[in-house]
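Sample 1 of the test manifest.
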Amino acid sequence: MFGMTVILAIANQKGGVGKTTTAVNTSAVLAQIGKRVLLVDLDPQGNATMGSGVDKQSLDETVYHVLIGEKDIVSSIAQSTCGYDVLPSNRDLIGAELDLVSMKRREFRLADALTDVKNKYDFIFIDCPPSLSLLTLNGLCAARGILIPMQCEYFALEGLSDLINSVRRVHANLNTNLDTVGLLRVMYDPRATLSQQVSNQLKTYFGKKVFSTIIPRNVRLAEAPSYGLPAVMYDKASRGSKAYVEFAEELLGRVTTNSIDRSLVE
Ligand code: ATP
Ligand code: MG
């Protein structure tokens, strides 16, 4: 059901819920098994860029220059040391929001740019910023599916309806191809009753759309970015890394079968 290139936006407007951690580790696992992967950093924080070992300070070309049409995407893509390519980002991207407003096809700038390179990749992951901004819209309009990392804590469900409403609006008005690939439970603490309760609630509301794999809270996942490496490369024996390997396998299964239902977007 997905075309040759699977393009997934990793989004949640809540900050610090594991979007970037999911983006870099999933990219690395898929690269390790021979998939050609591009990671698009759509966040001015540049965490996915740094977490892939690409120095965000020293970049002449970033996703910003691509979005505003100043640079060609091919020359802006950097090779990481992690087996996948990165369309990097840094603070320059803060200006994009204003620059894009008056541009034509402002929601489709990333989608249009990716047309030129997508055949080179099996997977393209788009790490979205923690907002429902024009940048995130560009991510959702370029993607075939959205992947939502969720922290199993009390307020987790609160922002979810806003996100799902945005996804529905994008689906209805801008990108009829967009599907919800699934919700991924992250930073899970099995000892916390609350974690279990929220996790069960997610299952009840969203059923099959919740991935079976659960990413535990694991300090290795938090340490790895300071070494410019995904945890699956920094310490592949850690519990967090093993969970991301398992998740990548589950994701592969999902995008290559017809198991995605569209009820979230329709
Ligand atoms: P932002 O919204 O700011 O872009 P994000 O949603 O991309 O944040 P991350 O940067 O992936 O979230 O994670 C937030 C913090 O939590 C980081 O310091 C990260 O290293 C840490 N972290 C992510 N996942 C886990 C985990 N499973 N266990 C422990 N720490 C984690
Ligand atoms: Mg992030």
